[in-house]
């Protein structure tokens, strides 16, 4: 398949969109319409993901009673007084269903053989860490040996590496989500200032899920942004080779 034709002429618009996003800590009570939420989630899910296994899930909270409880879970911080909070979950346990789903939802009448092989053999080998990580343990030894003479895929071979694996792709989806809301005129604040344990008492967080952030969304209120934007100089973070 050919790649879609490159879209030119959007650089300035994209720059403006990215530039205009700020972490907003005060929201009005204005409700975010469901169709906007849905459109933004669709764009979030267009994020790239490792092996296209899409290890994210989202919980959309609009119920005022639940939001009130979440405000306490978020340590009472002001950003959490938003009319909409979306929990962004990185899942380490959905890869096997996802392998089956890739084949199930394959967007063509038949699944190419190489794809079928990859999602029935290679990917399960890569992501199955076994009960209590025993497979991962053996894979780590194998990787050490096989990697002596050639480049090998060294991770994820433990539950902890699976967590990182899932978080990487999910964080990309979270950024898409923030920019999507921004493009609809809504502001956001990503929050990791929350009590994970108490979150589980409020929402049905699956056992394999890592709540990487709670995203507050709404219309910006008065003095919504606390500080001027600050970023370190580019040279400090970038090296060229
Ligand atoms: C993973 C993550 C967690 C964050 N957690 C919080 C939070 O709990 N509360 C908050 O007010 N801001 C939070 N922020 C927002 C950052 O403080 C903010 O993005 C940063 O200060 C830069 O400001 P800017 O986004 O307006 O450019 C978080 C941002 C990220 C990416």
Automatic annotation (TrEMBL):
<dbReference type="InterPro" id="IPR029479">
    <property type="entry name" value="Nitroreductase"/>
</dbReference>
<keyword id="KW-0288">FMN</keyword>
<dbReference type="GO" id="GO:0016491">
    <property type="term" value="F:oxidoreductase activity"/>
</dbReference>
<keyword id="KW-0285">Flavoprotein</keyword>
<keyword id="KW-0560">Oxidoreductase</keyword>
<feature type="domain" description="Nitroreductase">
    <location>
        <begin position="19"/>
        <end position="218"/>
    </location>
</feature>
<dbReference type="InterPro" id="IPR000415">
    <property type="entry name" value="Nitroreductase-like"/>
</dbReference>
<dbReference type="InterPro" id="IPR050627">
    <property type="entry name" value="Nitroreductase/BluB"/>
</dbReference>
<dbReference type="Pfam" id="PF00881">
    <property type="entry name" value="Nitroreductase"/>
</dbReference>
<protein>
    <submittedName>
        <fullName>Nitroreductase</fullName>
    </submittedName>
</protein>
């Amino acid at each position: 398949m050919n790649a879609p034709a490159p879209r030119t002429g959007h650089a300035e618009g994209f720059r403006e969109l990215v530039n205009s996003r700020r972490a907003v800590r005060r929201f009005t009570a204005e409700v975010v319409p469901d169709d906007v939420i849905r459109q933004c989630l669709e764009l979030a899910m267009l994020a790239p993901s490792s092996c296209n296994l899409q290890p994210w899930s989202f919980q959309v909270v609009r119920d005022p009673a639940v939001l009130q409880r979440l405000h306490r879970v978020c340590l009472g911080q002001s950003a959490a007084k938003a009319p909409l909070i979306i929990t962004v979950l990185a899942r380490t346990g959905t890869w096997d269903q996802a392998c089956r789903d890739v084949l199930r939802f394959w967007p063509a009448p038949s699944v190419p053989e190489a794809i079928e092989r990859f999602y029935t053999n290679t990917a399960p080998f890569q992501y199955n860490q076994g009960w209590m990580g025993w497979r991962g343990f053996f894979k780590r030894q194998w990787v050490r040996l096989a990697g002596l003479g050639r480049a090998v895929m060294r991770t994820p071979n433990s539950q902890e590496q699976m967590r990182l694996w899932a978080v990487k792709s999910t964080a990309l989806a979270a950024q898409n989500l923030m920019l999507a809301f921004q493009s609809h005129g809504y502001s956001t604040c990503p929050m990791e200032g929350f009590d994970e344990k108490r979150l589980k008492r409020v929402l049905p967080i699956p056992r394999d899920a890592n709540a990487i952030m709670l995203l507050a969304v709404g219309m910006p209120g008065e003095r919504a942004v606390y500080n001027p934007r600050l970023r370190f100089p580019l040279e400090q973070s970038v090296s060229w080779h």
